[in-house]
Specification:
β1 and β2 form a beta hairpin. 18% of the residues are buried. It contains three helices and five strands; from the N terminus they run αββαββαβ. Helices cover 29% and strands 22% of the residues. By secondary structure, the chain is of the alpha+beta class.
């Protein structure tokens, strides 16, 4: 299963606890690689075309990334914008 971008930006400390790392600006090549290697979107069995990263909020301390197919991204576009999600789309 795809670990998600937020899991890639965290690093374990010497005590084994996970510590957040400051996120670097999005690397388009990394997003494209993640989209290509993902077998399915979070929402359905279609291939993902978009990664939406929801920012942390009270009660949800970590950012959450969603792999979305094109159809579900179009349906959720307004809600993602209202949630201040960072959107990364595949160039195809």
């Amino acid at each position: 299963m795809f670990p998600g971008y937020s899991a890639l930006t965290r690093r374990a400390t010497s005590s084994g606890a996970v510590r957040n790392q400051p996120q670097a600006p999005a690397d388009p090549e990394k997003w494209i690689k993640n989209l290509i290697t993902a077998e399915r979107a979070c929402c359905c069995s279609a291939k993902p075309t978009t990664v939406a990263v929801l920012p942390s909020r009270p009660g949800r301390p970590e950012p959450v990334d969603l792999l979305l197919c094109n159809h579900h991204y179009r349906e959720a576009k307004a809600a993602l914008a209202a949630a201040d999600a960072e959107i990364h789309q595949a160039p195809w």
